[in-house]
Amino acid sequence: MIKKVVFSLLTVSALALAGCGTADETTKAEVKTSGHGDTTPAKSKSETAQIKELSAQFPAEPAKKVVATSVSVTEMLDIVSITPVGIPSTTHKLPDNFTDIPKIGSAVEPDVEKIASLNPDLVLGSESIKDSIDKKISNINLKGAYLPTDSYPDLKVSLEVLGSAFDKEKNATTYLTKLQKDEDKIVSSIPDKKAPTVLILFGTGSSFMLMNDTTYVGSLVKTVKAKNVVTETMKTKESYVPLNMEDVTAANPDAILLVSHGDPTAALTQFKADVKKNGAWEKLNAFKNDKVQALDYDIFGYASLNNATTGLEQLKDTLYK
């Protein structure tokens, strides 16, 4: 019973780490990678179809009054110079020019009455919790549109869709071109050595979950060419899976990355203290080679295009030093 409760709490926390802005709004969306060295990579057929399907949610005339229920979506609206009438409450940093915009509650449990009072033309949210938000706003006859925000490639697609939906293609294209150039520069500077195998942990204490490539952090790790053992070795398709020590021991990762709330130094100290209770951890290559790192939650704690370049640079330095 206790294990079920812990797992449920971690699942809610995970739903709060991507686009919600409190954890990753988990989906099983396929992670799409771009071709490095080309700032305008050709789209695959599946990506083109995805953009077309997502764009069909939006009205022909751009909505004038928009409420954002996701931190990731709020950030992207700012990128394309759209000012929403309502934004989510969150501990994450929102755009400075959105400080005085009314808050509509958390991304997972928005205040429907508050949203209704703002009289929006459109409610924008993250695709992974579409059913939950749709059910709430349908009761007050509001239209919603939902964008994938789980991974780094998801965010790129969503920004392009937003640019098109609000006649802000130039803003979106300019931003994405710069982002791709920065990404290409980082990837091209990766040392010519064997790609490290990586285990990404989310949570605290004995309640860790493992993150695969379809999560935000996982997709950044993949972008810098590291191998996520959850995807590559364990062959897990779920975005988040409970920790199984036998699987971890068998995978024996070269590096371990910890995503946890609060100060990363304190989180790492606590993690190392906790794992001493299980000697199997210290036998892993990551521990033997001092390749255990807590990531900065302000950078990696939610799916963010604005933080992506910094995140990629930090991961490259951490995994290849």
TrEMBL record:
For this UniProt entry, which residues form the secretion signal? 1-18
Superkingdom to which the source organism belongs = Bacteria
What Pfam families is this protein classified in?
Peripla_BP_2
GO BP, sorted A to Z: cellular response to iron ion
Q: Which SUPFAM superfamilies match?
A: Helical backbone' metal receptor
Alphabetically sorted, this entry's keywords are: Signal
Ranges for region Disordered:
26-50
Compositionally biased tracts (Basic and acidic residues)? 26-35
All copies of the Fe/B12 periplasmic-binding domain together span 65-321
Concerning Gene3D superfamilies, the annotation shows:
Nitrogenase molybdenum iron protein domain (3.40.50.1980)
Q: Which InterPro entries match?
A: ABC_Transporter_SBP (IPR050902), ABC_transptr_periplasmic_BD (IPR002491)
Similarity comment text for this entry: Belongs to the bacterial solute-binding protein 8 family.
Q: Please report the name of this protein according to its UniProt entry.
A: Iron complex transport system substrate-binding protein
Organism the protein comes from: Listeria rocourtiae
